[in-house]
Protein 1
Amino acid sequence: MKKIMSAILLAASCLTCTGQQVGTFVKGLLEQYPEARLLDVYKSSFQDYMGAEHLVTDTASVRAYLQQELATTEADDMLSWYWEPCGIYGNYVRVSLRAVKEGKIDADVLINAFIASANGGERPTVNDWAAQWHTIIKVIDQMGLSLPHYEQDKEFIDSVLEQGKYAISHSSDYREAYAPHYRIIRRDIFEQQLKPLLLP
């Protein structure tokens, strides 16, 4: 019951985000990632609202995919941070695989936190998320940003939402510039289980 109420409160509070909150989030993201496009702003936003993109039903596949990603990626090729909050509210956190590569977090600990985050609690509906995104994009439209492929990305996002879906990949520009390798962890799980391992 507590998890259900938390999800309801999250959905309600997100719809009341202010233009200032949206503007602060978007400006901060673009300052940190100048090669980001609207697709990447959208991705951070839906990760904050919806969490992981799928429920996890196959733990073995999750583990195998993580091990493959770790085996084919060097820590020096990853971004320098161990974690960063998603979106406007930081309800979820991106935990970099750098933390595993450098021995800060055991791979199984990250996997368990990821699975618990993906499967725990009630997930908001895609319609809820679409309403939230429409609130966000109205503010972004008024910001006068010179993002490349802005209208094309905006139309693509709308087409995804019209299909009753919400998840997309990072833009090719973002992937090429920043080589993102991370897992999405619910903030309370991160604070309790992972953050203590990452502190000096």
Note: Residues 2-198 form one domain.
Protein 2
Amino acid sequence: MAREWAFVALGSNLGDRTAHLAAARAALRDLPDTELVAESAVEETASLGPVPQPPYLNQMVLLHTGLDARQLLEVCLAIERAAGRVRRQRWGPRTLDLDIVRFGDRRLDEPGLRIPHPELPHRDFWQRELAELLPHAV
């Protein structure tokens, strides 16, 4: 399979946020047929949604991967679980959140997988991080 550029957002607002992001980057770096090409700066942002919670550390990484979008999603979910992520509440706090923001120029609308991520237009920090990484996707 041809490789694709994948932009994956990392977020954490519980526990050692810096360590959670570092572990996620390491896990993504170790994926088969995948290269972690670039990382955006890490920034702290206020939480989104109706649930009161601590601020997030956010970052985006650029992968060049031979995995398809569904395979990448499954790996991201496994990385979240390894970091202690438990899905109890939509928009709730989390040790680690990994979102596929873009996967090449593809548009997908499947159960549990929408690309580009539907929240991209509403998250200024994702747009900043994406702009920082786009020059590396050549």
Note: The chain has one domain: 16-60+69-126.
Protein 3
Amino acid sequence: MDKITSILVVVERGTAPQYALRKACVLARHFGAKLELFLCDAEHAYALKHVYDRHGVAEARSACLAEGREFLEALRKSLAAEDIVIGIDAACESPLHEGIVHKVLRSKPDFVVKTLGSADRGRGPFLTIADWNLIRTCPVPLMLARGRPWQPQPRFAAAVDVSGEETPQLARSIVRTAEYLSLGCAGTVEIFHGAREHRPETEEALHELGREFRVDSGRTHLLVGEPSKTMPWISVVCM
């Protein structure tokens, strides 16, 4: 990533869109980017796709889009962000991740921000099937936001695989993106690798990557254990 001039913020009913909106506004202010709020009503689209009687489907779809834009307009007015250019758009398309990807291909944003899927009382926000599919298919960097707000000087964690199973170029690309975000937000970068067991060669590869990007050893971390438990990220940026 070498620029952020436009950010697409995916808004979903039933989640907490303020998590994504707050972080998107921080990025927009630091990088001078514009925002576009986007709602894709996948549930309504699925129902319309499978309705037996096709009479009135076009009208129902138009009403769905109008309602979505009305919801987004109210959300835009609620933001204290007069200094940011904010557009809105709605779609009625299923499945959700395809609707988002199609919007990305149309609007060509540099970055996508979305709140993690549904909230669970015991676990909080978590990755849904739609999130996993979006991670796999989104053509631009994607941030999945959770509820914890950023500090004035945010810390960006670059989670990399230096075990040899992934290419060194991918690890460098991830760190480079974290570096770009941190420089724009006057933050810091920390590099993480999760491994089920400690291997000296893996630790050395991690520190070598840190030296390449001038990240000192105190901000490079080898976390030993089940990665899903040792790295429960507050926000996830996917390349």
Note: Residues 48 and 54 are 8 Å apart (CA to CA).
Protein 4
Amino acid sequence: MKTTQPIERREPVLLVGVNVRRLSHAGGRAGADVPAASARDSLKELQELAESAGANVLGSVLQMRDSLDPATLVGRGKLDEIRAEAHARRVPLVIIDHNLTPVQLRNIEKEVGCRVIDRTQLILDIFATHARTREGQLQVELAQLNYLLPRLTGRGEALSRLGGGIGTRGPGEQKLETDRRRIRERVRKIRSAIETVRSQRTTRRRARQAVPLGMVALVGYTNAGKSTLFNALTGAGVLTSSKMFATLDPTIRAIRLPSRRRVLLSDTVGFLRDLPPDLIAAFRATLEEVQEAALILHVTDISNPHHAEQDAEVTKVLRALGVDDRPRIHVLNKIDRLKDEELSALKTSNGHGRENVFTSAVTSAGLDELLARIDAAMPVDPLVRLRLRLPLADGRRLSVVHAVGRIVSSELLDGHLVLDAELPQSAARRLQEFVVE
């Protein structure tokens, strides 16, 4: 029986990395030292992004410069090399690991002779692929249109191919090449629709706040394991994937803490270095869950050798959202990927053992400690200790104590049950008439 081989449908691409050398303070000349996230590591991250978008990366070119060329970013000589490499590998698309100005984009496309997209457009394309809810799709389209509007001039041919490959998904049906007026009108309508979504989300949030359940938000660099941790804590079936930005639309579930308090846990979109401000602004409605959280769980892939740089990028975004001073627990995830001696060294190093929680969402290691830390740090509906005297026949109130509280001791006395119990403040208020001073 004849079998057919699977056909490679991933789009072939060439990656281009750009690194600017720092100037030596001593001699004022260009030095060999590079930024913390080196160009090679940045290219590796770009490759992961490209593969998440459906690319087949056939090669890469790295440019080292003392300063960026305002017209072509990489310089005319490097463009010749990129053109030759793209022609030799027969790739229809070049992805630049930098955010390009409209002029740079047009000049590079003209010299290279094939389609070119930058890092921002690649991220937008991934977002367009992963957006599932109407809200997420609207936010992606708004970001895409705002990105595309200043880049319309001289791109009629490229725009006519919208919908035909990486960097083109999303608002293709809108025929963006027709004119700017229609795009601006579409932007206005999308913003109005997003405001409606925000209003609905605010209404739902106020309904949740009527019942004193605190919000805990999971944040972290993309692919840090947030969704796997979310599933491990809640039993939800949120999509987990090694692809970057697998989670785009927020998900909220209730979890019960060791004190028997219930809180809401929110899984959010992953952060990335150099996220464009327009993109953060477009996803304001989604990121409001982070802004409304009483407690933030900052999840780090501790097995990643560049986790410190990734943490710095997450802190930068939290600062932009105005929540960098919010109560926070640092969760060092994926400890199952570390050797025993590496984990021991981390736990005994300065600050790590005291300040952080070590977890593996895959093996469930450290989850009990994490829940206990959330319980201790949660500022909403704090626990209070009471002595209650409840009639034995009052089954409804006794069930409340058992459901949301923790009984420390109990005794029968004259047809009543006298309890020492820890209860959330909201439940304690409802039992105030039975409190024994």
Note: Confidence is low (pLDDT under 50) at residues 1-7, 23-34, 156-162.
